[in-house]
Amino acid sequence: MKRGRVLVLLVGGVFCVALMSIYHMLELMQGTEPPCNRDTPEGKVVEDLTVIQQKIDRLEHLLSDNNRLVSMLRDSLFQHKQSQESGRGGTNNSNALRQAEPPPGCRLAEDLKDGDDGVQLLNVYDLLPFDNPDGGVWKQGFEITYRGDEWAEQPLELFLVPHSHNDPGWLKTFDRYYQDQTQHILNNMLVKLGEDSRRKMIWSEISFFSKWWSDIDEQKRAMVKRLVEAGQLELVTGGWVMADEANSHYYALLDQLMEGHQWLQTHLGVKPSSGWAVDPFGHSPSMTYLLKGAGLSNIVIQRVHYTVKKHFAQQRTLEFLWRQTWDSSSRSDITCHMMPFYSYDVPHTCGPNPAVCCQFDFHRLSGGRVFCPWKISPQPITEENVKERALLLLDQYRQKSRLFRSPVLLVTLGDDFRYVESNEWDAQFNNYQKLFDYFDQHPELHIKARFGTLADYFAALHRRLSATETSLPTVRGDFFTYADRDDHYWSGYFTSRPFYKRLDRTLESTLRAAEILFSLTLAEMRRFYGNNKLAPEFPAREHFLRLTTGRRSLALFQHHDAVTGTARDPVVIDYGTRLFHAILNLRQVLQSSAHWLLLMDKSQYHHDQSKPFLQMDDVISAQDALPQKTPLMLSDEPRLLILFNPTEQLRTSVISIVVDSPDAGVANAETGQPVAAQMSAVWLEPSKASTESFQLSFIAELPPLSLVAYHVTKVPAGSTPRARYVVHRHNDPPAVRSEHFQVSPLQGSTASSPLSLSNKHLQIWSSPETGLLQKLRLPSGLVRRVQVQFLWYGTRTGSNRDKSGAYLFLPGEEGAQLYSFTKPPLIRVTRGPVFSEITSCFQHFTHTVRLFHLNGHAGKSLEISNMVDIRSESNRELVMRLVSDVSSGNRFYTDLNGFQMQQRRTLDKLPLQANFYPMTSSAFLQDSRSRLTLLSAQSQAVASLRPGELEVVLDRRLQQDDNRGLGQGVTDNKLTASLYHLLLEEIRAQEVGGASVEHLSLLAHLSSLSLSHQPIVMVAGSASQLPNLRPFLPLSSSLPCDIHLLNLRTLEEPQEAGSPSQEVALLLHRKGFDCSAAPEPLPSCTWSVHEEVNLDDLLAPLPLRWIRRSGLTLLRDHDEPPAASQQQAPRIAQLRPMEISAFRVQLD
Ligand SMILES: [Zn+2]
User: How far apart are CA 79 and CA 296, in angstroms?
Assistant: First the structure.
C-alpha cells in the first residue's frame, strides 16, 4: 500500500473515532436524565434549569473533547509527515503502522539521552577498587603535600561558616529539642551576631525557625531582618527540614521546600540561594533538580561514600556541576561542593588531620562537657601562642585547599545543636577572630580569613573561577549507597520502620487529594456566588489551617531521622501521631469539599463536624494501626457511595467495600445502571469466613478528578455473583468454615499441579505447595519464569562485631536463608468476575497476588500485597525476592524519589549490603525480550544480587544499636502492609540500547499513578433522606498520558495570614517515558509531539483567569514579569519531558 493511502486511511480513521465519540456522547446525554423530584412547580423550574445547565456542561465537554481529537489528528499528521521524510513508516496496514511507530511523545522522550561529557558515577564505581587502605592522619584519604608558594599569586581566601545542626526530632522530639536547645541557640544568635558585624551564621531548618519566630516579639523580629539584610545571617536551603533523599518522594520533597520558602517570603522577604545538606545519608540528584528549580544555584553535601570522596579529592573534582542524568543541556546544573572528610564536625572540616582540627573547636576547651578524643585539647588563643596556633591551623587549611581547583576555601564551624550557651559563642568567635587578626597582620602568609556564609563563599568561588577561566567538571548520577567507614553501608534505613514509610505515603496521597479538591471547591464557589465570595457556612479558613498543618506534618516527616526510621521510639510515636492526625484532619477537608460540590442546591449546604454528611469508608483507630473498613449497613433503601478519583486520568478501578449482607449490588446513582460486582468473603482467620460482613467489589469508571455517586442496595439472593474458593494445605487439608460461599478442596491430581489464574492480559501459575507465583504468560505467548520467594537475613555473630541496626545493614556471612516452615501455608484461591487472587498464609506474613478482570490497561499488572508481622523474631530481616529468567546481567534500575530512574550495577567487589539501593516507587530488570517492573506504594531497600533477581526488604527487627548515635535497636515492629504492581512488558528488541538513561514505560507510569493515588471512598446515609446530588466532573477529559498533575495547591492570602487566597500553585510534571514497550491496548489518554501545550485546553473547562509561570516553590520574585503573565486564552506553555513546571494561577 502506498504511503498516501496510509495517510488517507489514518486521517479517515481518526475522523471516524471523532464522529463515533460525538455520537456516543449524544447518546449518553439522552440516557442520563437525572432523577427528578417534582413535588412543587418551583422545584420543577429549578430542576429543569439544572438539567439544561447539565446539558450545556456536557456539550462544553464534548466540544473540548473534539478539540483534543483534532489536535491528536494534527499530531498524527505531523508524525506521519516526519516518518515519510525520514523514510520510515510505510508498512502495509494502519495497525502495523502503529506498532512500528513509537507513540508521538516517545521521540521527545528519547531525545533525552545522556551526554558522554563529564563524570558518570556509574563508571566511577566500575573503576574504584574499594580497598580501603590506611591513609595516615586522614585515614580514608591520602597524604597531602604542598610547597608553600602555591598562594603567592592568589592568596588563600578562607570562609569559616558557623552552623548548628538542629534535627527536628531524633533522640528527642521536635518540641523537646526546641525547648531544651534550639530556642536558646536562636536567642543567643540575635545577641551574639549583634555584638560584632564580622560574625556570621547560617540556618537551615525552617520548622524550628518559624516556631521560634512565633515566640519572639516585633523588636527581635526586626533584629533578625537586620541581620539577614546585612548578610550576617543566611537562611540556607530554606526547606522545612533537611530532608532525607532516599526514602522521600519528590511530591513531599518539593512540598516541604515550598512550605519553607513560602514562609521565608512572607516573614523575611528572602529567597535562599545556597543549599546545605550535611547530614542526609546519601544524596540524590532529584533534590538538586528541585533546588535548582526553586532558584538555588549552589549546594554543599557531605555524606558520600568515603572511597568516592577520596577519588573526587584525588581528581580535584570535589566541586562540580551536578547535572541530571537525562539532561543534555546545562539547564539543571547546580554548583556542588562535596565536603572531603568524614564528618561535618570541627575535627573533620578544618583539614585532613582531626587531631589538629579538634584543637580548633573552642567549645572543647578543657573543663567543658565535650573533649577531643584524640587527647590534645584546644587552648585559648593568647598573644603568646597565637603564632604557633595560627601556623598549625594554616597548615591544615593549606592541605585542604590542595584538594580544590580554586584557592577559595570553605571551612565550617559547628556540630549538632551547637551554640546553645552564650559562652560557646564567645569561645568560638573570639578565639577565631584572634587567629584571623594574626593572619591579617602577616601578609607573607598569603591568607585572608574571615567568618562567612555560604553565599559569601560561593560568590568568592565563582568570582575566582571566572577570573582564572577555570571551569568545574560535570558530574551525573547519585551518591547512594553511603558508607562512612569500612563495610558499614547505610542500606538498613532504606527499610527501617516500614510501617511509617507506608503511612508517609498514605498522608502524601491524602494531602494531594485534599489540596486539589479544596482548590477546585473554592474556585467553583467563587464562580457560583460571584464577587470572590465563598459559601457562608463552608469552613474555608479552618480547612486551610488543616491543609497547612497537614503540609507541615508531611514536611516534618521528610527529615533525615524521620522517614528514615532512625529516631528513638518515643520520637517515632510523636511523628506517627502527627501523621495520623494530619490524615484525620485532611479527611474532613475532603468530606466537606465533596459535600458542597455534589449538592444540586447549594443552599442546602451546612457544616456540622459532629455529624458530617459524608464519612470515609474506613477508620484508622490509632497512629500505629492499619485502616479498617467500616461495614455498611444495608436496608431496602439504597446507601450512597461517593468516589473521588484524585488522578488526572479516566480510570477503571475496582472498588471494594464491606457490607453486612452477602446479597448486595451496586448501581451508578446517575443512570441507575447496575455495575459489574462480586461478593467475596471477609476472612477472620485463614480458614474462617465472617458470617456478618462481606466484601463487595465493583468496577467503577471514574473520570479525571471527578466525584461520582453509586448506590449500594440489598439485592435478591444470587443476583451478585459470589466468589468461589479453593482452600488447600499441602498434605493437610484444612477444615473451612464458610456459610455463604462455595469452598472446595484441591483433590486428586489437581492437588499437585500448579494453581493458575488468568485474565485477558495475563496468565499466572503458582506453586500448589506454597501458593507462591512461579511464572507469567502474556497473550503473545511470551512466558517468563517469575518465582516469588521469601527469605531471612540475619546479622553478624560474635560479641565484638558490628551488627545491623536502624542505619546499617550488616548481614551474616551465610547471606539470605530461604524462609522455611514446619507446617505448609494455608492457600486460598479466589475466583470471581471482578478479580481473582491467590493468598498464602504463612506464620510471619500473608501474601496475596491478585488479577483484576478489567479490559483496559488497568488489568495488565498483577497486584501483590503483603501483611508482615515479625514481632516474634530477633535480629532478622524478611525479604521478598522475585527470581526470573530475565537475562539482566548485573544491571537493574531503581527510581530516585519517584522522579527518575537510575541504572544500578551489582558489583562483586562490594559487600552484599552495598548492593542494596533505595526504591521509592519502582525498580525494573530487562533483557532484549522483556522488562519486569515492580512498582511499589512505599519506600524500601531493593537489590538484584544475581541476574534476573529482584528483592525488597519488607521489615527488619534488630536488637542492638549500630553506633551512629541513636543508642537503641529497632524493635517497635508492627503489623505492616506493603503493596505493589508487577508488570511484564515485551520489548521491541532493536530499541534496547546500553544507554544509562532509561525511563518507565507509559503503562508503568499509569500503573504507578493508580497504585499511589487510589480512589477515595466516602459514604452517606440512605439515599431517600438525602438532598439531590449531581456528579462533579471538573475536567472534560484526561490529561495527556505523560502529564501528571502533581499539585493544585491553594496559596496563602498575603494580606490575611491563615486565609486561602485566590491564587493556586499549579504543578505539572511531564514524565519521560520509554517506548521500547508500547502499551497495548492503548490507554485512553493522548500524547503530543510538541513541548508547547495549550493549558486552557489541557484543563478545560476549568476557567483560568490568568496564569503566570514561576519557580518551583512559587516565590513571587521568581514569577514571570507581569507583562508575560497570560491574561487571555490560548495560554501556551512549554512543558519539557522530565521537567516539573510551576504556575501561579487564578481560577475563575
Ligand atoms: Zn541530622
Answer: 38
First to last CA, the chain: 51
Cα–Cα dist 704/1009, whole Å: 12
Short-list 1087, 874, 856, CA closest to 960: 874
Query: Do residues 1077 and 1086 touch, judged by C-beta distance below 8 A?
Result: no
3-state secondary structure of 101: coil
State phi, psi for 586 to the nearest 5 degrees: -70, -30
Q: Residue 465, class by beta-carbon neighbours within 10 Å (0-12 exposed, 13-18 middle, 19+ buried)?
A: middle
Residues 196-217: b if buried by 16+ CB within 10 A, e if exposed? eeebbbbbbbbbbbbbbbeeee
- For 1060-1092, write each residue's pLDDT tens digit: 999 999 999 999 888 776 667 677 788 777 889
Q: Which of 279, 345, 927, 962 is catalytic?
A: 279
| Helices 498-529 and 250-267: angle between axes, nearest 10 degrees | 60
Instruction: Calculate the average pLDDT of the chain.
Output: 90
Give the mean pLDDT of 387-410. Answer: 98
Residue with cell 510471619: 844
Give CA–CA dist 461/157, Å, rounded. Answer: 9
493-506 pLDDT, tens digit each: 999 999 999 999 99
Q: Which residues contact 332 (CB under 8 A, 6 or more apart)?
A: 288, 289, 292, 323, 324
Residue 116 contacts by C-beta under 8 Å, 6 or more apart in sequence? none
Alpha carbon distance 1079, 1100 (integer Å): 26
1148 is catalytic: no
CA of 243 to the centre of ligand 1 (A): 9
Look at the pTM and tell me if it is higher than 0.85: yes
Contact in structure between 899 and 286 (CB atoms under 8 Å): yes
Output the pLDDT for position 1128: 78
Distance 182 CA to ligand 1 centre (A): 14
The Å distance, Cα 157 to ligand 1 centre, comes to: 29
- pLDDT band of residue 609 (cuts 50, 70, 90) is confident
Pairing of strands 724-728, 483-485: unpaired
473 Cα–ligand 1 center, Å: 29
Q: Give the Å distances, CA to CA, from 515 to 265, 543, 552, 628, 704.
A: 21, 10, 13, 24, 15
Backbone angles phi, psi at 424, to 5 degrees: -70, -40
CB within 8 Å of 182: residues ≥ 6 apart: 166, 208, 211, 212, 417
C-alpha cell at 1044: 501528571
Distance, in Å, from the CA atom of 455 to the CA atom of 460, rounded to the nearest integer, reads: 9
Identify the pLDDT of residue 41: 45
- Residue 57 class from Cβ within 10 Å (0-12 exposed, 13-18 middle, 19+ buried)? middle
